[in-house]
């Protein structure tokens, strides 16, 4: 299985970056959770405050949450909508942007693809390398939230939390696939990463800004349209259709990336 | 030896309107040490990338051990018997030499790794980032040969190697030939061709100029006559049918490459006072100057400095031949 050789080599090279991301994410989660008790005790009515923001802002950062007094609702707004969907999603698209383009740019690809490794296997191997990376980040945040909730003596719905992280993981994998396609298409790392982060960030904004307008259908282009941390964590509703779309989009993007890379000149 | 080790047939690559290579046809037998000579930007790297399937030809085809590069599945199979040293080998900076080789071993094997490392030692446990150019090149040699390939394609393999290692490498290549291995190496260093190659293809501006047996080439290439005179020398006096090349050097001396007719030469020299006269065998450099001097435009600018510097076995110079070629191909 040469894909696995490629995947494990690539993953090993990304370990250090991964540790940094985990540390930052866990620190963010820790701070967010640490603030929650004082947040609940304050007199400010956050529901009212948030309602005073423009709808687009709410769509982007609040989601479908209506209850901010529970830790779940608070976390959706403060952590999952913004940090998870937008920042971590963009990070994985960006990181995946260098998977293939990095080797083409650096020309190390000339040492790999002159071995009995097809370009498709190469692309698939690179994709596989990011799966454990997503899993590590996903589990790190999950652990941070569970431990953090325990430390402030708050109950958190564990099954729903797991559901958020399961679906969120699929979302991040789809972001990786976006980066992978950009990476297979562009010969330069910067361009591939720029395109990848642009697509994830841009469609996120598109999804938020077109809510309740005539152009709402445009938001369907965004991956964020297919998962709703609020629904999952606060209401416990699993959107199976959305999950199917995320998985399907990922598969299509990986196949496209392999196909694009098969047809490209490498120089 | 029915199937050639390498068969390039009408290979053409255009980047838009820019010619990479055009109508290239070369056949290399198994067990041959084949040189592929041309100045930077002539299309050597493009040819090698086409041959290995990294680029798609605009026209024509290439095959290795009988497997055409455009038959993806079959060609992948043959790649397990192929080794490659790229023009400017780039590894993974943060990874040690050992782990780099482990990785490549997983993809295509490493039966000869230890033997090669004994011969071309590198600091295995340091990250490649810390490697000198020479060590990187040695690592490239090890990875290209460690799976005991039958055909090795190399793009300027000695650039960055110090002269001693270079000689060791030439010796190694001759041993590989003795074992039946086929080597295809591109170079812009003439001395290298003379040192190791049986035959050479000469390329300029993306076109094949000649494919020659090295010995034949040297045998029929005449002599070099150098004349120093206090008089001003008129080139027209030396324009015999046998003259291959005649030029006035910057110091005012005459440099003539001729395939014979020394009577005419002596007669012509009669009109001049002579300070110094030298007649010597042609060095391979003189022969190749001949190919590059005539024909379309001098845009590829053969590096005369190179031929002088490599006359004595060759200092590697021009640390970045790939860059020059890169910009020509862009």
From TrEMBL, chain A:
Keyword Glycosyltransferase attributed: no
Keyword Zinc: no
Cellular component, GO, one term: plasma membrane
Residues passing through the membrane, by range: 18-39, 79-102, 123-152, 164-187, 194-211, 240-261
Pfam families noted in UniProt: ABC2_membrane_2 (PF12679)
Any GO molecular function: ABC-type transporter activity
Protein name in the entry: ABC transporter permease
Phylogenetic placement of the source organism: Archaea, Methanobacteriati, Methanobacteriota, Stenosarchaea group, Halobacteria
Key words of the record: Membrane, Transmembrane, Transmembrane helix
Automatic annotation (TrEMBL), chain B:
Region (Disordered) location: 294-330
GO molecular function: ATP binding; ATP hydrolysis activity
Domain of life: Archaea
Domain ABC transporter: 6-230
Keywords, comma-separated and alphabetical: ATP-binding, Nucleotide-binding, Transport
Compositionally biased intervals (Acidic residues): 294-303, 312-330
Similarity comment: Belongs to the ABC transporter superfamily.
Protein name: ABC transporter ATP-binding protein
Keyword NADP recorded: no
Pfam families: ABC_tran (PF00005)
Coiled coil: none
InterPro entries the UniProt entry points to: AAA+_ATPase, ABC_transporter-like_ATP-bd, P-loop_NTPase
């Amino acid at each position: 299985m040469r894909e696995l050789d490629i995947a494990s080599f690539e993953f090993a090279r990304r370990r250090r970056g991964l540790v940094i991301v985990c540390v930052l994410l866990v620190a963010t989660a820790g701070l967010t959770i640490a603030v929650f008790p004082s947040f609940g005790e304050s007199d400010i009515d956050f529901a009212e405050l948030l309602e005073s923001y423009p709808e687009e802002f709410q769509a982007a950062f609040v989601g479908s949450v209506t209850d901010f007094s529970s830790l779940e609702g608070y976390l959706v707004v403060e952590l999952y909508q913004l940090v998870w969907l937008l920042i971590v999603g963009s990070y994985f698209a960006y990181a995946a942007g260098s998977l293939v383009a990095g080797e083409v740019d650096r020309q190390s690809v000339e040492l790999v693809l002159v071995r009995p490794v097809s370009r498709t296997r190469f692309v698939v191997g690179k994709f596989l390398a990011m799966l454990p990376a997503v899993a590590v980040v996903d589990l790190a945040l999950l652990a941070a939230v569970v431990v953090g909730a325990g430390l402030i003596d708050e109950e958190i719905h564990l099954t729903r939390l797991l559901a958020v992280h399961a679906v969120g993981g699929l979302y991040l994998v789809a972001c990786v696939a976006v980066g992978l396609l950009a990476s297979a298409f562009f010969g330069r790392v910067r361009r591939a990463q720029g395109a990848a982060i642009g697509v994830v960030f841009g469609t996120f904004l598109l999804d938020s800004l077109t809510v309740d307008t005539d152009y709402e259908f445009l938001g369907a282009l965004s991956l964020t349209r297919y998962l709703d941390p609020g629904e999952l964590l606060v209401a416990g509703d699993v959107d199976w259709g959305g999950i199917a779309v995320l998985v399907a989009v990922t598969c299509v993007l990986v196949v496209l990336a392999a196909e694009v890379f098969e047809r490209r000149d490498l120089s | 030896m029915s199937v050639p080790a390498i068969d390039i047939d009408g290979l053409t690559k255009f980047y838009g309107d820019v010619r990479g290579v055009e109508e290239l046809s070369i056949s290399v037998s198994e067990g041959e040490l084949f040189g592929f000579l041309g100045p930077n930007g002539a299309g050597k790297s493009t040819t090698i990338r086409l041959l290995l399937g990294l680029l798609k030809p605009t026209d024509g085809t290439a095959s290795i051990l009988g497997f055409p590069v455009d038959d993806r599945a079959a060609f992948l199979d043959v790649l397990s018997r192929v080794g490659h040293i790229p023009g400017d080998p780039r590894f993974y900076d943060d990874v040690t030499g050992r782990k780099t080789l482990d990785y490549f071993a997983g993809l295509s094997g490493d039966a000869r790794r230890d033997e090669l490392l004994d011969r071309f030692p590198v600091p295995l446990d340091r990250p490649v980032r810390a490697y000198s150019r020479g060590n990187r090149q040695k690592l490239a040699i090890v990875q290209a040969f460690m799976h005991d390939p039958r055909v090795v394609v190399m793009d300027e393999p000695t650039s960055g190697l110090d002269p001693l290692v270079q000689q060791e490498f030439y010796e190694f290549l001759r041993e590989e030939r003795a074992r039946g291995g086929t080597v295809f190496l591109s170079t812009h260093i003439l001395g290298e061709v003379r040192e190791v190659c049986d035959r050479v293809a000469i390329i300029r501006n993306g076109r094949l100029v000649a494919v020659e047996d090295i010995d034949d080439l040297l045998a029929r290439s005449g002599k070099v006559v150098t004349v120093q005179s206090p008089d001003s020398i008129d080139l027209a006096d030396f324009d015999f049918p046998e003259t291959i090349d005649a030029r006035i050097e910057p110091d005012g001396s005459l440099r003539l490459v001729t395939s014979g007719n020394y009577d005419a030469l002596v007669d012509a020299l009669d009109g001049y006072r002579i300070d110094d006269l030298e007649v010597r065998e042609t060095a391979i450099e003189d022969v190749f100057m001949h190919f590059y001097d005539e024909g379309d435009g001098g845009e590829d600018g053969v590096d005369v400095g190179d031929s002088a510097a490599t006359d004595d076995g060759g200092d590697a110079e021009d640390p970045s031949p790939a860059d020059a070629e890169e910009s020509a191909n862009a």
